[in-house]
Write a structure and sequence with these properties.
- This protein is an alpha+beta fold.
- The chain folds into 3 domains: 45 residues; 92 residues, no CATH class; 184 residues, Jelly Rolls.
- Strands 1, 2, 3, 4, 5 and 17 form a 6-stranded mixed sheet that branches. Strands 6, 7, 9, 10, 12 and 15 form a 6-stranded antiparallel sheet that branches.
- A hairpin with a 5-residue loop joins strand 13 and strand 14.
- Helix 2 crosses helix 3.
Length: 342
Amino acid sequence: MTNPIKKYFQHLTTAIFSVAMVAGLGANLFYLGQWLKPNLRFMAENLDADYSTKMLAKWPHEYEYFQFVCEQIPEDAVVGVPPRRWYNRFVRRLIHTPYMLYPRQARSMNSVPWRRPRDLTHSLYIANPSSNSTWPPGVGDRTIHFMPRRFTVFVDQLEIGDANSGWEIIEDFEDSSGAPLLKPVTNDSARIVHGHEISTQEARSGRHSELIDVEYESTEGDRWGMEVNYPLSPESPGAALYIQANQVEGVRMFAIVQFENGSEQAFFSQPNGKPYPINRNYRAPYYYQQFLWERLEIPDLQSRAARFAGRQRWPRENLTLKTMGIEIIYPRAKRWGVVEIR
C-alpha cells in the first residue's frame, strides 16, 4: 500500500471520528438543554418560592413521604432504611434518606437476615404491592404510623358511544349551577373530604370540571358517580370520561349496568397512569408533561354486560347504563409509614 493511500485512509478515519465526536457532543448538549429548560423556567418563575415548594417540585412523592415520617418521630431517632430491592417508583430516591431525615440518623439494613442495629429506634415501613409483602419483616405488634394518601381528582366530559359511531357527551359540567354532580356511591367511613365542588381551575372542555379532594388511610374502593339512565345499544356500546389525578393507578372509571330483571352489576376500566404534581402552585417539571388529562373508558361495556347476563341466564336485551363515575382505590397493600422499634 502506497503512502498516499495510507494518508487518505488516515484522513478519512480522522474525519469520521471528528464527525462522531461533534454529533455526540451535540446530542449531549441537546439533552442537557431539554433537562435544564423546565428547571430554569421553574426557578425564574418561582424566585421567592419557599423550601417546601422547591422540594415538592423536585421530588414530590418522596418529599411528602419523608415529611410524614419526620412528623411522627423525634429528632434524636435512629431510623432503619430498607435494602435496594424495596425501592420502587413511589420512593425512587432513598439514597437521599439521610438528607431527608436530618437531624435523625439513617441506618442501612439487610433484608435476609434482618440484622437490626442495637441503637435502632424506628424503621421505614414499605409495602411491596407486586409481591404483597412488607418491609421490615416480623414487625409483630409494634406500633405502625401509616401515611394517609390524599387524592385530588378533576372529572370532566362523561361520554357514551364508541370509536366507530362516535362519542356523545352526556355531561360536561357546564349547566350544574355550581352544585357538584358526582355523589358518593359507597359509604366509606374512613373518607376525609377536603373539597368537593365545581371547579374553574381545570377543564378539558368548556370552563368547568368537578373537583373531588379526599384523603384515606386506606380504601378498597370509594365510588363517586351520577345517575345517567342511558340505554346501551350497538350504536352506543361504551362509556368514557376524562380525569386529572395526583396519584398513579389510584383512580379508575366504574359503570353500573341495570339488567331487564332489575339486577345491577358494576364494570371497571383500567386504572389511571398519568400523575400531576402534589403542589399545583408551580409549573410542572418536564417529567410530569404539563398536567395531562387522561381518558378512562370501557369501550365494550355493552358486550361485557351481555356476556355477564348470559352467564347468569338473564335477558341480554334492554341494558341500561344506570350510574357512572370514578372509583378511588388505595388498598392496604400499598400503604407506607414508619414503625416504632422501641
